[in-house]
Amino acid sequence: MVTIPTVSLNDGSDFPELGLGTYNLRGPEGVDAIAAAIDSGYRLLDTAVNYQNESEVGEAVRRSGIRDELIITTKVPGRDHGFDETIRSAEGSLGRLGVEKIDLYLIHWPNPSQGKWLETYRAMLALRDEGQVGSVGVSNFTEPMLARLIEETGVAPAVNQVEMHPYFPQAGLRAFHAANGIRTESWSPLARRSELLNEQVIADIAASHGVTGTQVVLRWHTQLSSTPIPKSADPVRQRENADVFDFLLTGDEITAISALERGRLWDGDPDTHEEM
């Protein structure tokens, strides 16, 4: 079993440096895959209402018998933005997960045309104060959105989960996070469906450390103080993905990987992209 180190969030909670993405892990096979990851040492599980697999995550957690060691993340979908709507959405997620508390609750997308993300965030803070939620955070928020959130509520989110990979290193946003005590979390950390893992610089660095290209990229994330959440249903690959804490990339290697930057790979600009 792999031991994944933790860092402290701005609310004092321990947070793993690497977690499991569960998008498209559904049905009995999805439960088996999530349970295998827990057995391998994963303690951070990322789901969302829109992934339609909260029940599978909950079943895998129950099967594990170590609920207290696990951090379950889920997210408020766009259709549930608003104060009362968020309260109801959380109740639904708690029921599907079969737990008494959501450990990390995120706004999935800001959906700026709706203009309700501040109300949603205030509802999440209320749920935290009532003990139904542990840490409160956001996903796909920009620097101006985060600045307004902090100014209006006085509470910086614990986490901002964003698209991040060597093609889109998010240096400016990460600097803002660091200055405001926000933990960066990376979705699509391996830039799947791209040629990232075939890049020569990745291959050369992997060979020099005796690891895989995937491990190099995930270590790049962790050394940039971001928690990647790679998804895999394969227990062997899950263990490989988590086994990245026994080597260190040099500063020059991190710079070389970051130099692959080319921008977002998908239609995910938070100022325009919306999901319900």
Automatic annotation (TrEMBL):
EC class (word): oxidoreductase
Name of the featured protein: 2,5-diketo-D-gluconate reductase A
InterPro entries according to UniProt: AKR, Aldo/ket_reductase_CS, NAD(P)_OxRdtase_dom_sf, NADP_OxRdtase_dom
Residue ranges occupied by any NADP-dependent oxidoreductase domain in the UniProt entry: 18-260
Keyword Thylakoid: no
Superkingdom per UniProt: Bacteria
Presence of the UniProt keyword Thylakoid in the record: no
Single GO MF descriptor: oxidoreductase activity
UniProt organism field: Microbacterium paludicola
Entry EC no(s): 1.1.1.346
Family: Belongs to the aldo/keto reductase family.
Species classification: Bacteria, Bacillati, Actinomycetota, Actinomycetes, Micrococcales
Keyword terms of this UniProt record: NADP, Oxidoreductase
